[in-house]
């Protein structure tokens, strides 16, 4: 296992995920948070607390670790392997969570749809990043 590359992939994945979240949730699509009901959101005076970023860093590293552990079983080569990994994580992680959110929580349907799509895009991008940085742990050219 390439521990150094895995850690770098996790850090870069977290940074890109954070930028994607700031651009989408904080600016481009922030209007979805004004849809009723709005009394469910905690008031935010500024950026999220530092522990949120630390937790996202840990989750990015865990995502890269899971990729490394499952590497041989993920279909595809190169960035396709990253796309497949991102899609699988979305299917077993984000999708069930969003179904539960829609079913049991008082959140606007548009917000759930937005989070579901954003989760897919983010995980596909993060999967590509992790695959590109982690590479083939067995060495050699994956495209042979």
Can you describe what's shown?
This protein is mostly helical. The chain has one domain (3-134). Helices cover 69% and strands 0% of the residues. The model has no long low-confidence stretch (mean pLDDT 92).
Using brief descriptors, characterize the structure shown.
4 helices; mainly alpha; 144 residues
Count structural domains.
1
The quaternary organization reads as single chain
Q: Average the pLDDT over all residues and give the rounded result.
A: 92
Q: Given the structure, what is the number of helices?
A: 4
Low-confidence stretches: none
| Separation, N- and C-terminal Cα atoms | 21 Å
Provide a brief overview of the structure.
This protein is an all-alpha fold and 144 residues long. It contains four helices and no strands.
Helices and strands, with pairings:
Elements: H1 3-28, H2 50-70, H3 79-104, H4 109-134
